[in-house]
Write a structure and sequence with these properties.
single chain; binds iron/sulfur cluster; globular; 30% helix; 28 strands; five-stranded parallel beta sheet; binds adenosine-5'-diphosphate; eight-stranded parallel β-barrel
Length: 692
């Protein structure tokens, strides 16, 4: 298929100082949880983006010097020859596919306690560590500023030596340079503080010195915030930032613009929709002739074209859409719009950075696996035999297994008890704010429906006898899990002895099936992610008084890993949910619940007509066990039919997030009929060593 001419504008080359991007698709700097620790994995990940058509592919935040160290979060670094060698792996792969490679030079300031290097962190003044590590920075004196400028210049030269095409001055996200810019943090009385001109001085010097050092070959980009505040509600407070951008307007070769509120800039889809930075971006292009890029979780080519044609941006910036679909540009170019694997805005990729582990993606199970498992997001080995695979359950695990097995050419029979596909995804995407999660189902269903080698049997609840009667070569059980109603979980390690009557105790499965309590309700959240909070929203929407009780010191504490905890907390307060932290449900008798203080053990009664327990799930693995039993019986009786394998995956093996189920389905499909060493399933990446 060929490209729709409406999208031609997205494929125009754009000049950035001394270099030219082949199109307008720009992978802005984003974390991977790989950084300097996993150079081959990160190089292959970035290279894959270039192969997928991204005209510019950038690193993550890249430290210029050991005085800016963020471990345990694995940042990139450009400190020495070893780093140059590691980054060269990336630039080579990006160039191989015609992309430009960008390095985001980073100085952490008060965000870095330098726990790895033990260097004293420096910032505009002596200030507390922003991550609440009990360290303070040293206020930079003139010699520190001179040293910083030298380090930045030398890192830029190393970036050039590593063959980067774009080098950043990174002046936002509350790191050192933004602290110099802001009147809220900059109290200096020398030429780097006070007036706007003085506060902008260091950024100006770094832009000029970077241009001087590498500007003959590399473009110099500036990452900058369009605003200086706001309440996270999408109403920007531009403040002095317009004036600052005006002052520097023509100095850099490119403006990479984002916003002050990180939880909005990369907000989850529950709270923030596509192209949500437009209100912030409205003035930027009117005050500079240099190309401008911003993000907005763009997955729709029509939205992208509209952004360009209306003069909001010159480049379509993306982090998450490029993770969910590294081939997004290629698919638009080749007229394969319906094959785009759209980001669902769940921010599970960001957990990699939060937890300092390689990133995962709900939509793209191959991300981070390009090098160590050799997985390509668009290519898969042809089938290894003429086997038929029976997949039972069409949740994210079963659907992804079916899609990938179908792609390999296997004959797949997909049986589903419900009248529709999608399992938990179809249920959960009905909950407030989660509609985009349906993309997990839709992307896979669209593919599967086109496959002549996949047969779908809806409304087919399979018994063990039914399974055996199909005589499939391989049986894959992906039957999911059910929420528990007995209060057992992390806090109560055993089921509660007093919890009932059963018709007044609900689980998320009940709520999603439309079985709701009507009177005052206590939600006990020992799951700590999104589920309890969306259920609270459902109930408040019906006018039900809700008290949310959690043993943690904040609601939805895991939401900190996906950058949505504050938004969830705000939403619950806005809709009138009473929040009780550091307490756990210990009994309920139909009229009164008792909650226990986790610190003192003191009991507190609460009168409620219903309780919703959001604690843990039970794997729905009865079918697996019954089929296992049948197979054993067949062996005993020497029946003709014996499947080659019986496997369970996803929530019915071990309940987890949707991304884990998708990964399990993908891995099953990849590994079928291949030799996998169960003790050594992948290659292990390690840092390069250089002689000192
Ligand atoms: P996962 O997240 O592991 O993919 P889900 O709970 O999302 O699991 O999906 C499991 C799916 O399996 C559900 O759609 C459910 O209807 C289906 N299912 C469960 N038991 C059977 C069965 N015996 N026969 C057919 N489908 C089943
Ligand atoms: Fe998008 Fe979620 Fe994948 Fe991140 S993990 S890229 S938010 S789908």
């Amino acid at each position: 298929m060929s490209r729709d001419p409406r999208y031609d504008v997205l494929f125009e080359p754009v000049k950035i100082g001394p270099v030219t991007a082949k199109n307008r698709f720009y992978q802005v700097p984003h974390c991977t949880g790989l950084g300097w620790l996993r150079p081959r994995m990160v190089a292959a990940l970035r290279g894959m983006k270039a192969e997928g058509g991204w005209g510019v592919v950038c690193t993550e935040y890249c430290s210029i010097h050991p005085a800016s160290d963020d471990l345990p979060h694995p940042y990139a670094s450009l400190w020495d020859q070893g780093d140059i060698k590691a980054h060269s792996l990336m630039t080579e792969q990006v160039h191989e596919h015609g992309g430009l490679a960008g390095a985001e030079l980073w100085v952490g300031g008060s965000s870095s306690a330098n726990l790895f290097t033990n260097e004293v962190a420096m910032d505009v003044s002596s200030m507390p560590n922003a991550s609440r590590i009990p360290y303070q920075t040293r206020a930079m004196d003139k010699s520190d500023i001179r040293a910083l400028r030298r380090w930045h210049r030398e890192a830029a030269l190393r970036a050039k030596a590593a063959d980067f095409d774009i080098v950043y001055v990174y002046a936002t996200h509350h790191y050192l340079l933004s602290n110099f810019l802001s009147s809220k943090t900059n109290n200096r009385t020398d030429e780097y503080g006070g007036s706007l001109e003085n506060r902008v001085r260091l950024v100006r010097e770094l832009i000029e010195e970077t241009k001087d050092a590498v500007g003959d070959k590399c473009a110099v980009a500036v990452r900058f915030s369009a605003d200086e505040g706001g309440e996270g509600n999408g109403n920007p407070i531009i403040g002095e930032h317009r004036e600052m951008i005006e002052m520097l307007g023509e100095l850099p070769d490119l403006w990479d613009i984002n916003i002050n509120d990180y939880s909005r800039e990369m907000g989850v889809s529950r709270f923030v929709k596509e192209a949500s930075l437009e209100a912030y971006m409205s003035y930027v292009k009117s005050i500079t002739t240099k190309p401008v890029v911003t993000v907005g979780r763009f997955t729709s080519p029509d939205t992208m074209v509209s952004q360009i044609n209306r003069g909001i941006v010159d480049f379509i910036g993306a982090a998450r859409p490029s993770i969910a679909d590294p081939f997004l540009p290629k698919k638009i170019e080749e007229g394969r719009i319906d094959e785009i694997r759209e980001c669902i805005g769940c921010n599970n990729c960001y957990v990699g950075d939060s937890k300092s582990t390689p990133l995962r993606c709900t939509q793209n199970p191959t991300i981070g696996e390009e090098w160590r498992r050799g997985w390509h997001p668009e290519k898969i080995e042809p089938k290894g035999s003429d086997s038929t695979v029976l997949v039972i359950g069409s949740g994210p695990a079963g659907l992804e297994a079916t899609r990938s097995l179908g792609n390999r050419g296997y004959n797949v029979l997909l049986a589903e008890a419900d009248s529709h596909l999608g399992g938990r995804v179809s249920r959960e995407c009905q909950l407030p704010g989660l509609s985009e999660w349906g993309r997990v189902r839709d992307y896979r269903t669209n593919q599967i429906l086109k496959m002549p080698n996949v047969d779908i049997y809806l409304e087919n609840r399979m018994s063990a006898d039914d399974v055996m009667a199909m005589e499939a070569d391989h049986i894959l059980i992906a039957t999911g899990a059910k929420w528990k109603a007995d209060g057992q979980g992390n806090y109560n390690t055993q089921p509660l002895t007093e919890i009932g009557p059963t018709n007044q105790v609900y689980t998320p499965d009940d709520i999603m099936a439309g079985n709701l309590p009507s009177g005052p309700t206590l939600i006990f959240d020992d799951d700590h992610y999104y589920m309890a909070s969306v259920i609270a929203e459902v109930l408040r929407d019906k006018g039900t008084p809700v008290t949310l009780v959690t043993p943690e010191s904040m609601v939805s504490s895991w939401g900190n890993m996906t950058s949505e905890q504050a938004q969830i907390n705000r939403r619950l307060l806005e809709v009138g949910v009473e929040i009780i932290t550091a307490h756990a449900l210990v009994s309920y008798n139909g009229t009164e619940a008792h909650i226990e203080c986790k610190y003192t053990g003191k009991l507190k009664p609460i009168r409620v007509e219903g309780v919703v327990t959001v604690t843990m799930r039970t794997p729905d693995d009865d079918l697996f066990r019954e089929v296992e039993q049948k197979i054993a019986e067949c062996l005993d009786t020497q029946e003709d039919y014996q499947p080659k394998s019986l496997t369970r995956i996803g929530d019915c093996e071990a309940p987890a997030i949707i991304a884990a189920a998708v990964f399990a389905g993908h891995r099953y499909a990849r590994e079928l009929d291949t030799e996998v060493d169960p003790d050594n399933r992948m290659k292990y990446d390690r840092v390069f060593y250089e002689d000192a």
